[in-house]
Structures are given as C-alpha cells and as structure tokens.
C-alpha cells in the first residue's frame, strides 16, 4: 500500500561552502548551530570550536562520521573541513589498497572510478548524520579553470571546487545549499582614465553563474554579505531531531518553553540576550534559539524567576543566578 504524504518536509540542512584560500569558509562554518568539526587540514586551529582529532586514514574518517550519527546530542551541526583534503585521504586509501604508485597507474580512468565510489561512501555516511537529526556542513577550496562552451566561441575563467571531476558533481548534487564565497571588487576609472580596483568585501553567492556553481532551495538573494545572520533563518526552521525521534511535541522543546515564558512575562528576546551576555555566557548577538538545550534547561529555565526579576528590576538583589 502506498503511503502518500503532502507538504514541506522539515529536515536538517546539507550545506557546502567553497571559495579561495583565506576567504573565511571555516569561520562561517563555525557560526552554524552547535558545530562539531572534523578538521582534516588544521584550518580550525585559530577558532574556539569543538573538534574531533584528525582521522588517521580514510576508513577512520568514515567510522568517525558514523559514530557522530549514532551519538545523540553530540552536536547540532557536523562540519567536515575540508572536502578536498578528505578526498586526498580517499586517494591514499585506494593507492594503498591496490598497491599502485599513482591514480593514473590504474589506466583507462579506473582509478578515478574508484575515487567516485569512495566519495559516494562518504556522502552516504554524511546522510546518516542528517538522518540522526544533525546538520552537515562541508567546506572546500576553490580553483580557477579555463572553461570552453562546446557551442560557443572563446573561453573564460571559471571557479570550481578543488576536487576531481568524479567527486565534485556528487557533492554539488548532494547538498541543499551550495555557497560560493569570494571577494567582491569594483573597477573604477581615475582622473587620468586609469582603471583601478577598489573594495574587496567578502560575499557569498547562492545562485548559478557562468563563472561559478552555487544553488539554494530557500529563495535566498543571489548575493549576500558573508555573514551567518543571513543563513540563520534556514537553521531556525530546521528540526533539531530526526522525524523518527519526534515523539516530543515541538511546543515542548526547551527553546519553546523560553519563548512561552518571555511572552507570558512581557520580556523580549533582546532583553534576555543582553542579560545572558552580561553574565558572560553568550555574546549578545547570539540568538536564543542557538543556546544549547543544556544551557537553557540548567540555567535559563532553572533560574527563570531570578532572571525575570533582574531584567524587570535592574539593580535589585535577586540572589545568585550566575
């Protein structure tokens, strides 16, 4: 019997962020809800984020991803940083497995077929993370390539992910949101009619362009400043647990309880964020929806009466609500 349903199905997000070196891909990924990094190249060393020790080999990487999928509440977003370094681990695995000196040594493109098969294994493991109710974010470096249209004259430079032609299409098809990040520059003419480049702000592109690949399924503008606040609504709408674990009504989540208390007591989220920041727990700009469930349960809800009094009557002693 067919089980037919209708309507939008909310689920965690599959995000790919790519761009040239140093543009800030890892920093942007660190703004995702409760991220946990698998850092294959050490790019997150300058960030205060939770990370898993670098996997020693390809099979170790696949096992780590599966373990994250099987561990409830370990994070809300798994970040694989980066795809191209992960792919190199797959290539090393293939060469060792078949005792070959290089991927070209297989002949007739067979080695590249193996790469595609292994990369498909990686995406399958990441799908298990999605099924467990966690977002998945994959970063990748970008490279410039000369591109020629078969039905047009001339050629032009095009940005592509720094992956083989077997892996890149798989990753692009797999994701819901493909962001190309780059510097936006402006060419202006000076008084002596000499062209000069000005600007250089960081932006992210969300739609396909002849010079890069990008896509989104959320109706985002074609170009946005490289700031997570423009992406936050996408994650606010995503569930925190998989549908198979959705036995608790949405109105009973810790965040929804806080929202109900705010409405009931006439306090705004801005006032709560300011109070939390004053206690040193989260920056004031952090949305309440991104507070961890543990923090909401063990601090916000537990000490709500004191917090409410402190916000409504600043300066009065309300007890210890650190």
Structure write-up:
Helix content is 34%, strand content 21%. It starts with 13 loop residues before the first strand and ends in a 10-residue tail after the last helix. Mean pLDDT is 86; it is low at 240-251. Strands 1, 2, 3, 4, 5, 6, 7, 8 and 9 form a 9-stranded mixed sheet that branches. The chain has 322 residues and is of the alpha/beta class. Helix 3 crosses helix 4. The radius of gyration is 23 Å and the shape is globular. Strand 5 (135-148) and strand 6 form a beta hairpin.
- What about the largest sheet? 9 strands, mixed
- Kindly report how far apart the N and C termini lie: 56 Å
SS-derived structural category:
alpha/beta
Radius of gyration over all CA atoms, rounded = 23 Å
Beta fraction: 15-25%
Total number of β-strand segments? Answer: 9
Mean pLDDT: 86
Order of helices and strands: EHEEHEHHEEHEEEHHHHH
Instruction: Please give the share of residues in helix.
Output: 25-40%
- Helical segment count: 10
Overall body shape: globular
Poorly predicted segments: 240-251
Give the arrangement of secondary structure elements.
Layout: E1 14-19, H1 25-29, E2 35-39, E3 50-52, H2 58-70, E4 77-81, H3 83-98, H4 110-131, E5 135-148, E6 155-161, H5 167-174, E7 177-189, E8 195-205, E9 223-225, H6 232-236, H7 254-265, H8 269-278, H9 293-301, H10 304-312
Parallel strand pairs: 1-5, 1-7, 2-3, 2-4, 4-5
Antiparallel strand pairs: 5-6, 7-8, 8-9
Helix pairs in contact: 2-4, 3-4, 4-5, 7-9
């Amino acid at each position: 019997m067919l089980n037919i349903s209708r309507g939008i199905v909310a689920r965690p997000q599959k995000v790919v962020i790519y761009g040239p070196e140093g543009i800030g891909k890892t920093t942007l990924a660190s703004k995702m809800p409760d991220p946990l990094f698998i850092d294959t190249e050490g790019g997150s060393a300058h960030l205060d984020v939770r990370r898993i020790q670098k996997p020693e080999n390809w099979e170790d990487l696949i096992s780590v991803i599966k373990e994250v999928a099987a561990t409830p509440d370990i994070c809300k977003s798994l970040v694989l940083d980066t795809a191209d370094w992960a792919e190199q681990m797959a290539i090393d695995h293939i060469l060792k497995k078949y005792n070959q000196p290089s991927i070209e040594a297989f002949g007739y493109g067979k080695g590249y077929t193996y790469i595609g098969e292994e990369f498909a294994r990686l995406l399958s493991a990441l799908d298990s993370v999605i099924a467990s109710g966690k977002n998945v974010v994959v970063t990748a470096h970008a490279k410039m390539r000369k591109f020629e249209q078969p039905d047009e004259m001339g050629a032009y430079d095009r940005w592509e992910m720094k992956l083989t032609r077997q892996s890149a299409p798989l990753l692009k098809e797999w994701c819901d949101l493909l962001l190309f990040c780059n510097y936006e520059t402006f060419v202006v003419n000076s008084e002596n009619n000499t062209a000069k480049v000005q600007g250089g702000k960081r932006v992210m592109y969300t739609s396909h362009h002849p010079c890069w690949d990008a896509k989104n399924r959320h109706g985002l503008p074609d170009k946005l400043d490289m700031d997570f606040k423009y992406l936050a609504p996408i994650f606010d709408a995503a569930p925190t647990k998989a549908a198979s674990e959705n036995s608790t009504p949405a109105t009973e989540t810790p965040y929804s309880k806080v929202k109900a208390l705010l409405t009931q007591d006439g306090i705004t989220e801005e006032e709560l964020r300011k109070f939390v920041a004053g206690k040193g727990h989260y920056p004031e700009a952090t949305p309440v929806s991104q507070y961890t469930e543990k923090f909401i349960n063990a601090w916000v809800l537990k000490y709500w009466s004191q917090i409410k009094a402190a916000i409504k009557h600043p300066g009065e002693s309300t007890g210890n609500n650190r």
